[in-house]
Amino acid sequence: MPSLFHKLYRNVLHPGAFQPVIYLLHTFARHIVKDSSVAEDIIQNVFVKMWMRKEQVNPELSVRNYLLVATRNELFDYMRLRYNMLRSDINDMHDLVEGDVRFSEQFVMGE
């Protein structure tokens, strides 16, 4: 039974073999993030992580399905990061506005 490494190596030797899967992954990611360059970064991260974990991946699994699930998980991570950044920005704005209101009250009341 060929390992995931051998499957990937064979596909690297025939780069066209991955083109349909890459197109599918990119379309899926772009649909979620609405940005082609972010989608490309996500797909690149998926391939890098898969390559780094090649010994841990079951070679009997479908590479296509593995990549789809890995892309979904990478999208979750991206969306979670974006959500946390947005929440942080909103909290910072709230603190800034509250600070300005306190300063204005002190200025008007002459304290």
Number of helices: 4
Q: What series of H and E elements makes up the topology?
A: HHHH
Give the rounded overall mean pLDDT: 77
Spatial extent as radius of gyration: 23 Å
The largest sheet is: none
| Helical content class | over 70%
- Percentage of residues in DSSP E strands: under 5%
The rough form would be described as: elongated
Quote the distance from N terminus to C terminus: 80 Å
Instruction: List how many beta strands DSSP finds.
Output: 0
Structural class computed from helices and strand pairing: mainly alpha
Explain this structure.
- The chain has 111 residues and is mostly helical.
- It contains four helices and no strands.
- The protein has helices spanning 4-13, 19-33, 36-52, 63-109.
- α2 (19-33) packs across α3 and α2 (19-33) packs parallel to α4 (63-109).
- The longest helix is centred in the C-terminal third of the chain and has 47 residues, at 63-109.
- The chain starts with a helix and ends with a helix.
SSE topology:
Layout (H helix, E strand, L loop, with lengths): L3 H10 L5 H15 L2 H17 L10 H47 L2
Helix pairs in contact: 2-3, 2-4, 3-4
Task: List descriptors.
111 residues; 4 helices; 0% strand; elongated; 80% helix; mainly alpha
Concise synopsis of the structure shown:
With 111 residues, the chain is mainly alpha-helical. It is 80% helix and 0% strand. Helix 2 (19-33) packs across helix 3, helix 2 runs parallel beside helix 4 and helix 3 (36-52) crosses helix 4.
